[in-house]
Structure formats: structure tokens, C-alpha cells
Amino acid sequence: MTAEAQITLAPDAVICTEAVLTGTVTIGAGTVVHPAAEIRATNGPIIMAENNNVEELAVIENLNPDGETMFIGRDNVFEVGSKVQAARIGNNNVFGVRCFVGPQTTVTNGCSVGVKCSAVMKEVLSENVVIYGETQTSRTASEPPLIQSGQLEYLRKVLPSFHYLAQRASP
């Protein structure tokens, strides 16, 4: 974490010290931020709800105009190397390895952006949209992705054994 950051962490959030958090960032309960992940509140604050998983080399950046807050819902997974600048993110979404979501895109609930896929248009991804394949095909899934609560629980137990964690302010 960087010195200029104004970070608010939930007591049970697991944030590795090797992660880079800049600007005004709020991290919700049960969220895990892996080493080398970046959360950049460049143009405005970022508020992340509970039980999100931000994996290694993932970059979440607020590029909203006029200092607007980037809201991120709960139960989202930002896989290795994903780059997400979405204006707003709902609940239970999966951002695949090395995918890119631009700042004019709004992601609702239950969406999946596949490996190396992108969503860069000024658009709202409707619920349960899946973007996949070399041709960036999209369709609507019949059900949202499964919530990865078991993986988060495991990471909350294991990461402290191998990494230093960010210190939380005393109440």
C-alpha cells in the first residue's frame, strides 16, 4: 500500500502488503486482495463491497469523470491480470484472466468477461451476459456464475501464512 492512500479496510478483509492501493479506497468485509494486485482511485474514490477476490496483477482503476465514485458490489472475482475500469460493477461477476473492461462500460450482475476478452463500448452489460472467445461473442447465460465462497474462505486462512497483511486502524 502506498503512503498517499486513504484506505478503509473491514476488520476481516485480507489485504497483502504487496498490493498497491492508491487514492481513497474502501474495502468491504471478507474481501481478499492478493500480492501485486492494484486498486487505483485515480479520478475518484472506490468503494468495494464484501467478499470480492482481487487476484495477482489485477488492476481496478476509477477513471470516472468528475470525481464520481466507482462502486463495486459483492462476490466479484477479478482474475489474474484482468484490467477493470468500469464505471460501476454489480454483484457476482467474473473478470477473466487478462480481460479488459473500459471506463464507459457498466457491469450489472452475474456477468462473465472471458479470458483476454474486452468490453470497451459505452454500454450496460445486462444481467448474466457472458463475453467469450476470440471473436468476443456474447450471450445471456441462464444462471449467474457460482459464488466462490469456498475459495475465499481458503484464501483468508492461507494467505496470512505466506504474506504480510495490511494493518487495520484500531477502533
TrEMBL record:
Protein name, entry field: Dynactin subunit 6
Similarity comment: Belongs to the dynactin subunits 5/6 family. Dynactin subunit 6 subfamily.
Function comment: Part of the dynactin complex that activates the molecular motor dynein for ultra-processive transport along microtubules.
Keywords from the UniProt entry: Cytoplasm, Cytoskeleton
Listed GO CC annotations: dynactin complex
An example Gene Ontology molecular-function term: dynein complex binding
PANTHER family, sorted: DYNACTIN 6 (PTHR13072), DYNACTIN SUBUNIT 6 (PTHR13072:SF0)
Gene3D superfamilies assigned to the protein according to its UniProt record, in alphabetical order: Hexapeptide repeat proteins
GO biological process, alphabetically ordered: mitotic spindle organization
Location(s) in or outside the cell: Cytoplasm, Cytoskeleton
